[in-house]
Amino acid sequence: MDQPRALVVDDEPKIRDIVRRFLAADGFAVTEVADGPAALRAVADEQPDLIVLDVMLPGLDGVEVLRRLRETSQVPVIMLTARDEEVDKLIGLAVGADDYMTKPFSGRELAARARVILRRVNREPAPAQDSVAIRHGGLTIDPARREVTTPHGPATLTVLDFDLLLTLARHPGHVLTRRQLLHAVWGPDYHGDDRVVDVHIRTLRKALNDDAADPLYIATVRGIGYRLITPPRT
């Protein structure tokens, strides 16, 4: 593939410099901006393959920037936070980030996570034997077309959300731990916070019109992980 493009958004020059150096050393072409409005302009102009986005930004904070991005784009986003408590808040908001890192962080680890995410997004098509559509209750999951249809019509899913649903659908009724889902969806090289799975389960449920309190499709198994409900309701 062509050299991947990364956009780094942080109002601290030292942080931008650290992220830029490690991403550039890992083969990324890097653009830097220091505030929310500039980030939105840079996304429109640069069409980055990955964004590293700080939560606390002047102009527009990172949460609002990501909300606006997700209206039109599914570009992978790694969010940077100043405190671990902010990660909990972001997960509660389910704003659609692909990963989270708390400052201070390892630039080498950030670059590694960025590569893992991009490999997943740009992976090769599934082999033919893995491309048979799966029908589960009112859902039709088509791996070849990467399309999901619900009783309400087509569902728009991110790359990671689709792969998460597909993984659950290939193990109906089986409880998969967060670590198992991370390994299957994010890849064996991913060693980040397993709470990112919870974020994507929330956005997946929203896309499927699935109620966590009374689910049709995805059940939470407290303290362990998630499973696709079977048999489906009729």
Question: What would you note in describing this structure?
Answer:
The chain is an alpha/beta fold. It has two domains: 5-121, Rossmann fold (3-Layer(aba) Sandwich); 128-228, Winged helix-like DNA-binding domain superfamily/Winged helix DNA-binding domain (Arc Repressor Mutant, subunit A, Orthogonal Bundle). 39% of the residues lie in helices and 21% in strands. It contains eight helices and twelve strands. The protein has helices spanning 13-25, 36-46, 62-70, 84-93, 107-121, 159-169, 178-186, 196-208; strands at residues 5-9, 29-33, 50-54, 77-81, 99-102, 134-136, 139-142, 147-150, 153-155, 176-177, 218-221, 225-228. Strands 2-1-3-4-5 form a five-stranded parallel beta sheet, with helices on both faces. Helix 6 packs across helix 7 and helix 6 packs across helix 8. The longest helix has 15 residues, at 107-121. It is globular. The N and C termini lie far apart (45 Å).
- Sheet with the most strands, sense and barrel status: 5 strands, parallel
User: Superfamily at the CATH H level of the largest domain?
Assistant: Response regulator
**What share of residues are in beta strands?**
15-25%
Distance between the termini: 45 Å
